[in-house]
Amino acid sequence: MTEKKKSGFAALAKSSLSPQEKLLKVKKGKGAFCIGLPMETSLQENRISLTPDAVAILVNNGHEIWVERKAGEASKFTDKDYSEAGAKIVYSPEEVFKADVILKIEPPTLEEIEYFRPGQTLISALQPGHLTKEYIQALLRKRITALAWEYIEDKVGGIPIVRAMSEIAGSAVVLIAAEYLSSANKGKGIILGGITGVPPTKMVIIGAGTVAEYCGRAALSLGAEIQIFDNHIYKLRRIKHILGHQFYTSTIDTATLSESLKNADVVVGALRAEKGRARHVVSEEMVSQMKSDSLIIDLSIDQGGCVATSEITTHAKPVFKKYDVIHYCVPNVASRVAHTATTALSNIFTPTILRAEEEGGVEEMILSHRWFLKGVYAYKGNLTNEAIGRKFNLKYKNIELFVAARV
Question: What long-range pairs does 115-120 form, CB within 8 A, spacing at least 24?
């Protein structure tokens, strides 16, 4: 027997005695697709749309997940975490943007839009207050379908992604306020709240939605005195019932609001525009009459801001002063707690993707479910959002026309 044959028998004998690795076949769902998670590049964004645990669930259901190298690091998820969950780590934006569905946090940049090809789907924030005509036209030229977080609803008419991020922002804003009221940050040198024998901090919250609910609860628990303004009486009733405390509420009356701002230590802008830009309800004159070193936190800045003196800032340079009033105008406050925010996003996106798989793909999901359909602002090269069309004088088509064409 030749030496070659002996070595062949030896290898066979060894393999029969030792357990061998074998790749398991992952089941392929009828509507499974490839999802790309790019590295965020704008406004010091630290979030990513899916956790490694969510990736493992989706991969097990037949989806292919591509994660751009280091995309999860700012959220404290490593490439190894994603790789072990079954994701493919890719090393350039060109690669990750080849996926069927691009799941992003911030809207893509003009450079990133160039990577798209017809037929792909984009799901990301839109930030209507900072939207440009150039962005919309570039996206339409690529003939992709684009959905905005701000418009995607759930089955009961809520806006789940906006609500989740608002819960986080509302809780975080109290910590931010405490930080910039302190002497360490050249603030008023007061504690956010109240202690025995010392007047409590006065906080004015403009808006009575989810941000106000979580901000108000945290502020009240610290002993602060709050006032909430909103033009919807039902929202004011609701928030009083939820918080269960006695505090001042009012509609947004210029004279009343102006008087409250003069005495406020902290002002939180939490108005949310249903369409387009937020409305300025705090004028420059009102700001000029506020106390020195008082603080404005404008959480409506992603829609243009509800305070006339607000200008967008970043996590690296979060504040500026105007009329001796500190302004904090970072649009992605939830990114301060990126791990928590990513988990919250993942809890929403994962079941949505699984549902899309059951429906036969994202397009079937869009055309079959009105709550998901409402998120679409561009469909295969057609602008489908009326507010955007009117803002930029662009032609738009009602998305219902495309639904009807499929029936």
Answer: 116/142, 116/144, 117/142, 117/144, 118/142, 118/143, 118/144, 118/380, 118/381, 119/143, 119/144, 119/380, 120/144, 120/145
What does the CA dihedral 385, 386, 391, 393 come to, rounded to 10 degrees?
Answer: 100
Residue 64 corresponds to which amino acid?
E
Q: Mean pLDDT of successive 10-residue segments in the chain (407 residues)?
A: 46 45 46 94 90 98 97 98 98 97 96 96 90 95 95 89 96 97 95 92 97 97 97 96 93 96 98 78 97 97 93 94 97 95 98 94 90 94 94 93 76
- Token pair for 326: 């500190």
> 86: how many CB neighbours lie within 10 A of its CB?
17
CATH of 165-331, one of 3.40.50.300, 3.90.380.10, 3.40.640.10, 3.40.50.720: 3.40.50.720
* Same topology between domain 34-152+337-406 and domain 165-331: yes
CA triple 258-260-266, angle to 5 deg: 110
Domain parsing of the chain, residue ranges: 34-152+337-406, 165-331
Please, what is the angle between helix 160-181 and helix 210-222, to 10°? 30
pLDDT the model gives residue 156: 83
- The alpha carbon of 193 is separated from its chain's Cα centroid by a whole number of angstroms, namely 29
Token reading at 10: 């030896």
Per the CB < 8 A criterion, the answer to whether 120 and 102 are in contact is: yes
Give the model's pLDDT for residue 30: 63
Return all residues near 129 (Cβ < 8 A) that are at least 6 apart.
273, 276, 277, 278, 300, 301, 302, 303, 304, 305
Task: Give the residue numbers marked as catalytic.
Answer: 130
Residue 293 CB partners (closer than 8 Å, separation 6+): 186, 187, 188, 324, 325, 326
Pairing, β 248-250 against β 382-383:
unpaired
Distances (CA, A) of 320 to 138, 175, 294, 312, 392: 33, 18, 12, 10, 31
Overall CATH class of domain 34-152+337-406: alpha beta
pTM: 0.87
